[in-house]
Design brief:
There is one protein chain. The protein is an alpha+beta fold and 329 residues long. The chain folds into two domains: 162 residues, Ribosomal Protein S5, domain 2, CATH 3.30.230; 154 residues, 2-Layer Sandwich (Alpha-Beta Plaits), CATH 3.30.70.890. Strands 1, 2, 3, 4, 5 and 6 form a six-stranded mixed beta sheet that branches. It has a four-stranded antiparallel beta sheet with strand order 8-9-7-10. Helix 1 packs parallel to helix 2 and helix 5 packs antiparallel against helix 7. It is globular and about 55 Å long. The structure holds cytidine-5'-monophosphate.
Length: 329
Amino acid sequence: MPVGVCAFAKINIGLKIGSRRADGFHPLRTVYQTITLHDRMRVDLARGTGVEIRCKDQRVPDDESNTCWRIAERVMKALKVRGRVVIHVEKTLPVRGGMGGASSNAIATLLALERLLGQQLAPEERLRIAAEVGSDLPLFLIGGTVLGLGRGEEVYPLPDLPELNCVVATSEIAVSTSQAFADWDSQEQEKYGKGQAAGRLTATTASDKLSGFSRAVFAWLGGSSTGVPAKGSGDRAEALLLDLVRAGIENDFENVVFPQHPELRAVKRALEREGAAYASLSGSGSSVYGLFKSADSAKTAANRLNAEGISAVATKTLTKREYWKKIWA
Ligand code: C5P
């Protein structure tokens, strides 16, 4: 019997990029937040060997470049089992949209395989395999509100934010994350010049910015709205949104992606104009989201954006508890 599983999306609330490491990756700091938008998947085991990926969306690769393929091979090997893994993906999430779709698909595959086989990997083995396949995978082993460090793969559960109303605007633009990081490097070099001294200066500035992120997150989540009990969860959500704006938490990728795709900056502006308390690019884009004070205002904004020709959907953030409850729904 195939196992059905939901692969939820994530947004990034703030993302700071440090200087390129010797291994080519960039240290970063981010707060990941899972949301209710998802792909539906079905995973099954058949006789034989190898992996088969079935997806109607032509943009989804059906070979070993697919994260589901890579994780399925590793899970089968780690659990020392043989069989052909058949994975159906019903794609709703944007491809290369900065919402972790491919990463979430891979974790859903891992969880479904464990369930099919009636065996579980040790938690550290799960994390090792997830991080090996991609920087954005491990967050989906936690769900809810997650702190991301290292190259994004070093994850720590944060106390969950209350449910927030969100509008996600998607576009046909596909942003390559590795290209966005390379463009970030070029932009930093242009700003600070070349040469060893400039390199040191860039590294110092980058490291200052990384610690600046910790201060901003402290100002946001260690602030009054979390300490003082509010009247209701709606009040707390509203106060958190205000504090988020005040704390100046931003996504560094906007500085490289918006100049290349001015239409995405316009989408952010449109979200703000329609009442978002906070709006940002998610990951390296191209998805842009806005956080709203109420479900009604989010729905109205999504309708207005769609009427303007911007593809938008009203959704909600997903706490850890809801993430794990709904994943098998
Ligand atoms: O880990 P993931 O497969 O998502 O990374 C894709 C590419 O993005 C990497 O090959 C690397 O070029 C870039 N990257 C980076 N720094 C990170 C994460 C990814 O430079 N923290």
